[in-house]
Design a protein that fits this description.
2 copies of one chain form a homodimer.
Chain A lengths: L8 E6 L11 E6 L5 E7 L7 H12 L3 E2 L1 E8 L5 H19 L6 E8 L6 H13 L5 H10 L8 E6 L4 E7 L12 E8 L3 H14 L4 E2 L9 E11 L5 H19 L7 E9 L2 H13 L1 H9 L4 H9 L11 E4 L2 E5 L2 E2 L4 H9 L2 E7 L5 E8 L3 H7 L4
Parallel strand pairs in A: 5-6, 9-11, 10-17, 12-16
Antiparallel strand pairs in A: 1-2, 2-5, 3-4, 3-11, 7-8, 8-9, 12-17, 13-14, 13-16, 14-15
Helix pairs in contact in A: 1-2, 2-3, 5-6, 7-9
Chain lengths: 389, 389
Amino acid sequence: MSVVRPKGFVANGVHCGIKAGDALDLALVATADGQPVPAAAVFTSNKACAAPVQVSRAHLAASGGYAAGVVINSGNANAATGADGRSNAEHTCALVAEGLGCLETDILVCSTGLIGIPLPMEALVSGIEPLLRGRKGNEVFGAKAAEAIMTTDTRVKETLVGTGLLTVGGMAKGAAMLAPNLATMLAVLTTDATASAGELQEALRAAVDGTFNSLVVDGCQSTNDTVIILASGKAGAPPKGALAEALTLACADLAEQMADDAEGATKVATIKVTGARSADDARRAARRVAESQLVQCSLYGGDPYWGRIVSELGSAGADFDPDRVSVAYGGVVVCRDGVAAPHKEEKVRAHMEGRMIDVTADLGLGEGTATFLTTSLSPAYIDENKGTS
Amino acid sequence: MSVVRPKGFVANGVHCGIKAGDALDLALVATADGQPVPAAAVFTSNKACAAPVQVSRAHLAASGGYAAGVVINSGNANAATGADGRSNAEHTCALVAEGLGCLETDILVCSTGLIGIPLPMEALVSGIEPLLRGRKGNEVFGAKAAEAIMTTDTRVKETLVGTGLLTVGGMAKGAAMLAPNLATMLAVLTTDATASAGELQEALRAAVDGTFNSLVVDGCQSTNDTVIILASGKAGAPPKGALAEALTLACADLAEQMADDAEGATKVATIKVTGARSADDARRAARRVAESQLVQCSLYGGDPYWGRIVSELGSAGADFDPDRVSVAYGGVVVCRDGVAAPHKEEKVRAHMEGRMIDVTADLGLGEGTATFLTTSLSPAYIDENKGTS
């Protein structure tokens, strides 16, 4: 169930002292021999991106799409930390590279935690040696790495997709700015498939669009969001499309775990838009509904208030005809052609009482479809995010 | 303090039975003689706009920018009600027009309340005769009208701006989808100034952009939002620019009252962006910060977490340089050139404890400035919006 299941990888997680107590706060995923393999990444598009994002992007460009390892700290985002922040991220990479015996530009770096506070380098540096020394290729160490990247996550998030021909393993934390006190959605994936950096990038981009980029908790975009994949090539070249498919399954699994563990989320809802004029319109409409604070409040209350769904669809910027829209909860149509439809209220009520809610909106205009995951907005979310201390 | 203070207008508010108990739920603002005067309006851009929005828009077009009165019901939005909804809105206008002795197209109509429920026409029709019969030009009746448009508002919202040469009066309810169970932001303004429909439209659009359109509670756009102005001409033609100025003051006053009465809002914050590359960029950036669920949570907690402000600025779609941004709370700079700035924490803490919070972000890139009003996100907001019953 982890990043070490595909052949050719090791991992570890240790406590270096960024977090209080003895919580694990420093993680490593690396190739078993410490040498670079093809790699790809998708980073936040936030212009206020954190130092580790800037450094990882530069390293991946310098190495021509190769990496030997990823070092990740939790408890501090190293964001809004200026030139010192970049130099701290560089220094972290240099120390890991020295230990692995590769180039500094072969190391990628991620951070997750509070924004605007200098990275406590003394603590971090003290953890590098034990982190490297203890790295191993068995599940226990994969789980340690997954634990060390947690912030307000309540559960470790790992995934494994095996097709017989190739294996994709992964770990992740958070969901978008879900747990923004300790910001960031991070995911590290590994595969034993043989693939070029370009093939990896293409497959990763497609997988992310349909999964992590279709998950909304609060619509906020973190300074640190990063998804990375390394490919060891130990299993040889997969059939065309197989890697992209496995990657999408792995990312979807991690995204669902994130939604399920979203802060204060009492409900997880799938928002499916069909019948849009185009796929883009469908995405716009589904995203608008998924992001709506009001829809999220209704989900929290288990209230099938379809008027809000229609209102959000109408203001999504997608083509919309108020007389053609239909809305269903759990497959029961409650609005047809823009007006209330007679339905079995008991059936809808029962569906709304569950933890997983299905909302389908048909725009009646074309063939475009899109699906987003979202969560309920609860007082616990506010409580978690009202302060940093 | 009301829509009847400018000469030439009457108003009334009655209980017709849409709301429970004896709460006022039907309002009228009309010219004293029941004859049309120049009028203008700004409507929601939501494509799922309610029947009254469709009908009012059509009436204003048919009359060439004239209106004799506005009839408004609360307790039901007449939205997502299809052809029946439009016919009900038309019928309401026809009855009012008959009573006033004007054309049906001289009457504008607004509704506010739950979406997707047929308008209870029997109740509404029963209220028209007493509504018209009791209309008067004194403050008590202006206040009745203002009360009859309330939904979850806790206070009547009225304004009066007099310049000596002209008077603008107004009443409003809600704030955007602030009180979305009983949706809608509505405002009706009157003036005794002489102005053409075109001049009114131009002045109203400018006033709305800088006030109601710069107020964010939850970023949701109602199906029913409407702002209307009628000009009696009793005070003659004002000097150039005077009407626009008075209208902006009146709208700003109403917008501030809305923010102050926003549901569950424990804090009201002014988000000012300066130094943007352009005015458009400044608006984009200020809106993004104002809409942020996370920033609103920080406001609720009174927590000066500037990292979230920077993160939202970076993802606003405006030009942004992470090394040039500064952020201040209550005039105290807490972030300079993108990193934490030493400051008097006690002074910031004292500012954050107040009800009104000032956030200023300077992007350091140009001369563009913009200001938005926003509110804290509190558990009370969720509680208010989790269900419709």
